[in-house]
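I hope you will forgive my troubling you with a question about protein structure. The full record is reproduced below for your convenience:

——
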Amino acid sequence: MTSSIVDSDTWIRRFHPAPAAPVRLVCFPHAGGSASFYFPVARALSPGIDVLAVQYPGRQDRRADPNVGDIHDLADLVAEAVRGWTDKPLAFFGHSLGAVLAYEVALRLEASGDATLVRLFASGRRAPSRYRNEGVHKRSDSGVIAELQALSGTDAAVLGDPEILRMILPAIRSDYRAIETYQHDPTRGLSAPITAFTGDDDPKTSLEEALAWSGHTSGAFELQVFPGGHFFVSSQAPKVLAAITEQLG
């Protein structure tokens, strides 16, 4: 379901432009997440790093756009949108579902030679070669909500508001379908270095599953472990941002 014409402005948000920065960091949200999750990241890293955030369809200002429930289809579309920003070196940061999507977009841009990718930050997600049969997208609405509550990544006020839930659950379910039906191609890998970030108490990613990202690049690999659960990127934001800055400096 690729599109020959993809409007970059539809897919990419640039909250704090940093045109003089030597590198761009493209950020990919988690399942159910939106570009605004990275607003504070863009503010914190500007002007040294030009931060872009991907806006998936089916949420916020794109709520009327059809959801895309397949990682490969989504990666095709995002890759086209990112090609409009390849005038300087790129780094990718993805959290949870976003880590796998960032990896797939990186594969496409490396294969086409359309971008200089300096690093992939894979956060809060086991390597593409590590599978779990979780089936969240097949659960009832209450089951999906229970999953969100367990991960503590969604505002409690949102989870308690039936009207908001009705609006966002289709996008969340579509995201879970995309990541839970994803199959990686074992014959493909990156040449760009990968840094994996994980929380020491993340129920979704074991240390071994995070280390397995090393098998997805022929370049350098590093694992950094932070205190916290699945959303350690929020609870440990200063440390995570410092690590990103250090590696892109």
Summary: Strands lie at 12-13, 24-28, 50-54, 90-95, 117-123, 194-199, 221-226. The two ends are 37 Å apart (CA to CA). The mean pLDDT is 91.
